[in-house]
UniProtKB/TrEMBL annotation:
The keyword Transcription applies. Residues 22-157 form the HTH marR-type domain. This is MarR family transcriptional regulator. PROSITE patterns: HTH_MARR_2. One of its GO terms (molecular function) is DNA-binding transcription factor activity. InterPro entries: HTH_MarR-typ, WH-like_DNA-bd_sf, WH_DNA-bd_sf.
Amino acid sequence: MDHVDRILAQWQAERPDLQLRPMGLLGRIKRLGAHLGQGMERVFAAHGLNAASFDVLATLRRSGAPYALTPSQLMDWTMVTSGTMTNRLDRLEAKGLIRRVRSDRDARSVTVQLTDEGFALIDACVTEHVANQHRLADALSETEQAELDRLLSKWLAGFEPPED
């Protein structure tokens, strides 16, 4: 019996009229998310990063050469506000992991690009991150992981429109 089961048992005793399956499902997802987040933060911290800085660097790295995007593109991919992105970029630039490159044609236009240091750091971190994700998901078999991924994708599609 896990923590969520104990909560459900209390509600069942107090409110037997309620169907509690969604409460259990959502409670487990919430608790699992917290455990997974902590597990991933350890890898990020070992590289001097946090989830937010990892997100920006990983987005630039996976964009392909020349590993550069506009701040607007980064905001779209990372789903944060302009102010939040500016703060993240300021911190990463201060560490020498990214640089802002002004357009020759329009001085107001900026591109954010990985530096060589940023590229090396994110490559090392993402390698450990993926290995860590394998460890974090290891309680499920490959078949169970595939089935859970399919179900979560189906559920997520109910909230997010398909992308082009």
